[in-house]
Write a structure and sequence with these properties.
About 55% of the residues lie in helices and about 15% in strands. With about 325 residues, it is an alpha/beta fold. It has 3 domains: about 1-95, Orthogonal Bundle (Helix Hairpins), CATH 1.10.287.70; about 100-225, NAD(P)-binding Rossmann-like Domain (Rossmann fold, 3-Layer(aba) Sandwich), CATH 3.40.50.720; about 235-330, Regulator of K+ conductance, C-terminal domain (Alpha-Beta Plaits), CATH 3.30.70.1450. The strands form 2 sheets. The chain has a 6-stranded parallel beta sheet with strand order 3-2-1-4-5-6, with helices on both faces. A 5-stranded antiparallel beta sheet has the order 9-8-10-7-11. Helix 1 packs antiparallel against helix 3, helix 7 packs parallel to helix 8 and helix 9 crosses helix 10. The chain is elongated.
Length: about 325
């Protein structure tokens, strides 16, 4: 960069000396002298402003040799700096991605991918985005998001995104076929990864489940249900939005995993003092796949591995998270 700045200074000096030289030798105006200097440096091939004297032609030769050489050096150096900065930036990005562990991978940064990333940022969760569109990659870099340029359906791209160390993957690519392919590839590379993906067509849901998706989201269906609930039960929807998305009040809805070493394991809800000390309501307990205990009683025994669906103040939810000895806390949205 210092050499580039030096070359630019030399170019400016050539322009100044050339302009001053024409004004002194040929007695030209400032504009004519500056114009002649510029067309000489750039070798545009225009005719001389006026007939030159022998001394003026010697000056022109010197300007062309010095100016063209300096201009070529500036252009080459600028191009080199651009390429090197791109390579350096990608290497730095790749290094950061390699350091990720238990992170999330977002495949696609379109209309769904953007709000998903915003939600992950709000929850302070580590994630990386796989995107192949250059304009979207620039947007991601501007927001300082980690991004892996490439096709998410390719195993190499998933490996570069740390698929084997990832905790979850979200597939929101343009077509169902792409999402099926990503799901299948991701499960083959990491059987433990939790995959949430989008389905546009009805037939795609079964294929995605067979490919290994843990959850399927159908945006049109969800949108229709939400619109119906807004029409029939607007107060309920508003309350859920306030709680789940932390809008305006200090209240949150969380899913907290109860660790095996937690001091409240094998205790009843009443003995755990969650309600009495933290003022938190346990809405439900997810004990196994698709097995929920809704509105558990005070006599319900808490077991290791239970997923507690809790509602309460954020500060108290964090305290419950530590009490449960859970490594992660996930906002339920």
């Amino acid at each position: 960069m210092k050499r580039l700045i030096t070359a630019l200074l030399v170019l400016c000096i050539v322009v100044i000396v050339g302009t001053a030289g024409y004004m002194y030798i040929e007695n030209w105006s400032l504009l004519d002298a500056f114009y002649m200097t510029v067309i000489s440096i750039t070798t545009t091939g225009f005719a001389e402003v006026r007939p030159l004297s022998s001394l003026g032609r010697s000056l022109t030769i010197m300007i062309i040799i010095t100016g063209v050489s300096t201009l070529a050096y500036v252009g080459g150096r600028a191009f080199q700096e651009l390429i090197e900065s791109q390579i350096f930036r990608r290497r730095k990005m790749s290094k950061k991605v390699k350091q990720l562990n238990n992170h999330y991978i977002v495949c696609g940064y379109g209309r769904l991918g953007q709000p998903i990333c915003s939600e992950l940022v709000a929850n302070q969760l580590p994630f990386v985005v796989i995107e192949k569109d250059e304009k979207r990659i620039d947007q991601l870099l501007e927001q300082k998001f980690l991004v892996v340029p490439g096709d998410a359906t390719q195993d190499e791209t998933l490996l570069n995104a740390g698929i084997k160390r990832a905790k979850g993957l979200i597939g929101v690519l343009a077509t169902d076929a792409q999402n099926v392919y990503v799901t299948l590839s991701a499960k083959q590379l990491n059987q433990q990864i939790f995959i949430v993906t989008r389905a546009i067509e009805e037939e795609a849901e079964k294929k995605l489940l067979r490919a290994g998706a843990n959850r399927i989201v159908k945006p049109y269906e969800i949108g229709a249900h939400r619109m119906a609930h807004l029409l029939l039960r607007p107060g309920v929807v508003d309350f859920i939005d306030i709680v789940a998305r932390n809008k305006g009040i200090d209240l949150g809805l969380e899913e907290i995993v109860l660790g095996d070493k937690s001091p409240i394991v094998n205790k009843t809800l009443a003995d755990s003092s969650i309600r009495q000390q933290l003022n938190i309501i346990i809405v439900a307990i997810n004990r196994a796949e698709d097995q929920y205990i809704y509105n558990p009683t005070s006599a319900t025994v808490l077991l290791g591995g239970d997923r507690l669906i809790a509602i309460g103040q954020w500060e108290n939810l964090q305290k419950l998270n530590h009490l449960c000895d859970s490594k992660k806390i996930q906002k339920s949205v």
